[in-house]
């Protein structure tokens, strides 16, 4: 069997570094973007993540991983965090963190779920909820480089209000005829909504996705049931499993 | 870093503190069973499944599902630790230990000191043979008494619970002996070559 293709990552120790919060932007009612200044950030590839470590007053520490939302071209590092009900770290990041605060961070981590303009396309991106975050880093990178690689984003959200980066995505797609953004709304649609409704299904994938003959690079990110569902449909549609890169998060649902 | 910055207002939300002796540094306990895989979940029919033990260009042993099921079966209960920070306590697995697999292949000694596990979907991971011997490693086919679900690596996964869980490769099909400790999939992508959770060996250089 052919080994999975992977980008070679540099090998050095990932030291904990200080990150300083410069700005916090509310994306939706449950999601915020945190712009961070990291003094000697070594750069990253779109799709990679970081580990953060918080220390409480009593010395208790907790670590979590978050995807990087910003492209390598940006000066600040942006994490976009969704508040997880009953979570330990995300409610603090979304509710309590303020500009000027500091915490520890190390990265970048992960060299597989990445895309740069040096890799070809077309690019098929499938996002469920906050699974958009690492894919947004890819789209922002593509835009900063004015890359003409044909790209599709198929983005599943509960409602229009839950669509993260909505205005930026609209603007991006409006300016760029090589980029197609399709939102599907699973629970609530505004009056006059003309886009798809409900979960991503085989018909929608067949209609919107680059077909297997175009050899798209496919990235699927979201909650585990979403990724299991979408990636198995893509395999059923004839896509080579080795061309489908996935990142799952949250409970398994099984 | 000597003095980490204090996050005011941040505190532990753990309902019950599990004994520290069971939770490696930087980990938290979950009762859920998260799924982390680099690609789609393969749907593997046990009729089409087999497991092989390989040395260089030759096969030391090969078992169909039925043959594998007829090998001595062992049940173990262990804590598991994922590099993405979750740990799960008291998980029960059943399968064939690496020791019994060697015996079934008629090997008194492992021929080489390292193993590369090869899996459906192209995933690989490298493990020292010493970490598989003495009941430390097995090919598991049951989780909590039931067939392992495809998303969790079924029908069979490597289980090396004392290392970070990426070493416990899902959908394992072939164990290849190696003279040198070549790197597997995540080990080539910045993750630690060995992955001891108690030394917090998450990434290269840890």
Task: Name some characteristics of this structure.
heterodimer; A: 254 residues; alpha/beta; Elongation Factor Tu (Ef-tu), domain 3; Rossmann fold; 6-stranded antiparallel sheet; 5-stranded parallel sheet; B: 206 residues; mainly beta; Sulfite Oxidase, Chain A, domain 2; 5-stranded mixed sheet; 31% strand; globular
What can you see in these coordinates?
The complex is a heterodimer of chains A (254) and B (206). Chain A has 254 residues and is α/β, with parallel strands linked by helices. Chain A has two domains: 17-109, Translation factors (Elongation Factor Tu (Ef-tu), domain 3), CATH 2.40.30; 123-249, Nucleotide-binding domain of ferredoxin-NADP reductase (FNR) module (Rossmann fold), CATH 3.40.50. Chain A is 19% helix and 31% strand. Chain A has five helices and eleven strands. Chain A has helices at 90-95, 132-144, 166-175, 202-208, 224-236; strands at 17-26, 31-38, 49-55, 61-67, 77-82, 102-109, 123-128, 151-157, 179-185, 217-223, 244-249. In chain A, the strands form two sheets. Chain A has a six-stranded antiparallel sheet. In chain A, helix 2 (132-144) links the parallel strand 7 (123-128) and strand 8 (151-157). The mean pLDDT of chain A is 93. With 206 residues, chain B is mainly beta. Chain B has a single domain, classed as Oxidoreductase, molybdopterin-binding domain (Sulfite Oxidase, Chain A, domain 2, Alpha-Beta Complex). In chain B, the strands form two sheets. In chain B, strands 1, 4, 5, 8, 9 and 10 form a six-stranded mixed sheet that branches. A five-stranded mixed sheet of chain B has the order 3-2-11-6-7. In chain B, a hairpin with a 4-residue loop joins strand 6 (114-119) and strand 7. The longest helix of chain B is centred in the middle third of the chain and has 7 residues, at 98-104. Chain B is globular and about 60 Å long. Chain B starts with 27 loop residues before the first strand and ends in a 28-residue tail after the last strand. The mean pLDDT of chain B is 95. Chains A and B meet through strand 3, strand 4, strand 6, helix 5 and strand 11 of A and loops of B.
């Amino acid at each position: 069997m052919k080994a999975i293709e992977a980008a070679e990552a540099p090998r050095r120790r990932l030291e904990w570094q200080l990150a300083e919060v410069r700005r916090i932007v509310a994306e939706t009612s449950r999601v915020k973007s945190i712009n961070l200044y990291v003094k000697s950030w070594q750069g990253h590839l779109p799709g990679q993540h970081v580990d953060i470590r918080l220390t409480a007053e009593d010395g208790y520490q907790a670590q979590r991983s978050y995807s990087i939302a910003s492209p390598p071209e940006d000066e600040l590092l942006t994490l976009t965090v969704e508040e997880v009900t009953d979570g330990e770290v995300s409610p603090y990041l979304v509710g309590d963190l303020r500009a000027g605060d500091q915490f520890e961070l190390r990265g970048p981590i992960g060299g597989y779920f990445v895309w740069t303009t040096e890799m070809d396309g077309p690019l098929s991106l499938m996002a469920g909820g906050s699974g958009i975050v690492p894919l947004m880093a890819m789209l922002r990178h593509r835009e900063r480089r004015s890359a003409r690689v044909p790209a599709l984003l198929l983005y599943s959200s509960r409602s229009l209000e839950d669509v993260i980066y909505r205005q930026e995505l609209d603007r991006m797609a409006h300016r760029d005829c090589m980029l197609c953004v399709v939102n599907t709304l699973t629970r609530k649609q505004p009056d006059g909504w003309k886009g798809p409704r409900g979960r991503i299904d085989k018909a929608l994938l067949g209609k919107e996705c680059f077909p297997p003959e175009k050899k798209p690079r496919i990235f699927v990110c979201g909650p585990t049931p979403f990724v299991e569902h979408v990636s198995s449909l893509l395999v059923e549609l004839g896509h080579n499993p080795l061309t489908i890169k996935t990142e799952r998060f949250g409970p398994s649902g099984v | 870093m000597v003095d980490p910055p204090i996050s005011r207002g941040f505190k532990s939300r753990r309902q019950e503190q599990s004994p520290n002796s069971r939770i490696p540094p930087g980990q938290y306990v979950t009762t859920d069973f998260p799924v982390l895989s680099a690609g789609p979940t393969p749907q593997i029919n046990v009729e089409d499944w087999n497991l092989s033990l390989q040395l260089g260009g030759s096969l030391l042993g090969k078992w169909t599902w039925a043959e594998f099921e007829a090998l001595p079966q062992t049940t173990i209960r262990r804590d598991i630790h994922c590099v993405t920070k979750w740990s799960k306590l008291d998980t029960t697995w059943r399968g064939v230990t690496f020791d019994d697999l060697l015996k079934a292949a008629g090997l008194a000694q492992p021929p080489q000191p390292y193993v590369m596990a090869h899996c459906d979907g192209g995933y690989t991971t490298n493990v020292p043979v010493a970490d598989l011997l003495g009941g430390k490693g097995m090919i598991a086919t049951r989780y909590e008494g039931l067939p392992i679900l495809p998303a969790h690596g079924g029908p069979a996964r490597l289980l090396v619970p004392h290392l970070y869980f990426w070493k416990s490769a899902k959908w394992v099909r072939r164990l290849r002996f190696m003279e040198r400790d070549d790197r597997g999939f995540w080990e080539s992508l910045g993750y630690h070559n060995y992955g001891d959770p108690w030394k917090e060996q998450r990434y290269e250089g840890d």
